[in-house]
Amino acid sequence: MAESKLKRTQRENHKRYKEDVKREGKPFFPYAMFHDTIMALVVVLVIIALACVWYFTAKHAKDGVGALGPLTSAKADPGTTSFVPRPDWFFYFLFYLLRVFKWPDSVFLGTVGIPTILLVLLIGLPFYDRRTERRLLRRPVAIVTAILVVLSMGVLTWKGAIAKESVGAENVQFVPAWAKKQGFEDNAKAVAGAKVFASLTCMTCHAYLGAGSSGPGPDLSAIAKGGRGAQGFADYVAQPSKFGNNVMPAFADIGADNLAALGEFLNASKGATATKK
Amino acid sequence: MAPKSARRRQLEAAALYPLDWVEERTGLVGGIKYFLFRHVPRDTNWMQTLGAATLTAFLVQTVTGVFLAMYYKPDPQNAYSSIQHITHEVTLGWLVRGMHKWGASVFIILMFFHMARVFLFGAYKYPRELNWIVGSLLLVLGMLEGFTGYLLPWDQTAYWATAVGINLNATAPFLGPFLANFLQGGAQIGPDTIARFYSLHMLLIPGGLIGLIVLHMYLVVRLGVTSPPWSPTAAGRERPDESKPEGARQGLIRSGDGQDEGH
Ligand code: HEM
Fold it and tell me: Which among A113, A139, A165 is the end of a domain?
């Protein structure tokens, strides 16, 4: 019964809307179309302005990085060891979720779970918000939800944008300190491995003794306790997907020597005074 | 007005002849006339131009995209240098590429703004539920368009963002690994990956976007755009005195004309 009453109200409202528009409305052309055209011009001008600022400031900057970034970064190189992957800005909020949910137990929530739930909530909106009321002040739940959504998306995007990128060159400076804390100062191979670790992209996903990123990969400060052994770690890093890890990229490209050194380093990481970030 | 001279009538008929010819065979002229002269609520405001703004940004993407495609080479050996060529050598290439690059962000931002306005107006409610769904799909496709386009310049940013993106895809249950495999097209990100991303980016996804935009516009014209809900003269507003609808309505029309600030 309630259902059919809702339907009746909806239909009546829309019928009245159609009548009102017919009687009191204005023709789309030229009235609404005039506003639309001005807006379209503004959009095109803004896009042109962005392109100009991007190009001319980058062209005249000494380092090639203008007000809106460089014209291109260096050519893609699959063998690179120290580049911080960044998605386009409108994926930052998802990107940051990955740091909230840590590999391996809950990373699935960040990559698929939450986005799917958000999408279902978005598409389903007209079906769970079934009141006919459209005035904002009489839709308190909608207002509060909207504010929360905008705030959290904003914060996640912002956090994703400023997420501390560990630059390889910075991390390498930590190596002597790591060696001392972990007690592998005398193990030249492990020290070499630590340098490889610091300059590769590892620390964009892993933390080590408080440096690097707290996700999506686990903290590796005490990973030796996992007990794979030096060779085991080297194999794992070369081809993580063989061990069921489909998130971490394969590092087979870096060569056997680097892998062996990395394995030795990881096997020496016993987490002496491991601190969580 | 003086009656039109015979000559003038003849001229007008000649000028309109092609239109009549097309109209008689397609009915399109009538359709366009309907589109242009249909009534919209008199209190529509600037927020309601955001849809047209989004459409404009999309059109900028299609036009600039067509020109980029004339110079871009979708394979690992040539992609990067063709982008360099476009940026530094082709006449106004920097402008076309810059507009495409920044237009993409403008497009996404405008989609969110437009969606926010639809939400604020409660315009997703009956009978516009389906148009909200079509809009949501447009949003998803728009973001996928961004994702697939990001790889094409084949620079470091592009390569590594895509590497991570594909790996993240792989974490989805069931379909995930399959999808990641399909996108990558091989053991490594390489020629097949670029070709796939390029095909998705300039055929499949834009095709889907155009189809959905047409559907979106059809529904907008058929259902009409909503009045701002707070407007005292909102189309479809409840009348305080339903027993005398005509009189009440006329009274409101007059007061509405007086305080109309929209235009
Ligand atoms: C490619 C992207 C899109 C384009 C080109 C587009 C275009 C438009 C245009 C021109 C209108 C007419 C009224 C206005 O301009 O506000 C409109 C209305 C509408 N749009 Fe979109 N839109 C897009 C995306 C979306 C999205 C992401 C949503 C929501 C999820 C959405 C939901 C709606 C709804 C429900 C209406 C009817 C509003 C009313 O009757 O007041 N659209 N759209």
Answer: A165
Of A165, A192, A216, the residue that ends a domain is: A165
* Ordered DSSP codes for A65-123: EETTEES--SBP-TT-SS------GGGHHHHHHHHHSPTTTTHHIIIIIHHHHHHHHHH
- The ipTM (two decimal places) reads 0.88
Domains of chain B: 49-225 (1.20.810.10)
- Are A177 and A230 part of one and the same domain? yes
Interface of A with B in 138-167 (CB under 8 A): 139, 142, 146, 150
Q: Tell me the pLDDT tens digit for each residue of B91-136.
A: 999 999 999 999 999 999 999 999 999 999 999 999 999 999 999 9
**Residue ranges lining ligand 1, Cβ < 6 Å:** B 48, 50-52, 54-55, 58, 111, 114-115, 118, 121, 123-124, 128, 131-132, 135-136, 138-139, 142, 213, 216, 220, 225-226
Domain that holds residue A35: 1-73
Banded model confidence at residue A108, pLDDT cuts 50, 70, 90: confident
In a domain, A144, yes or no: yes
Nearest CA to ligand 1 atom 42: B135
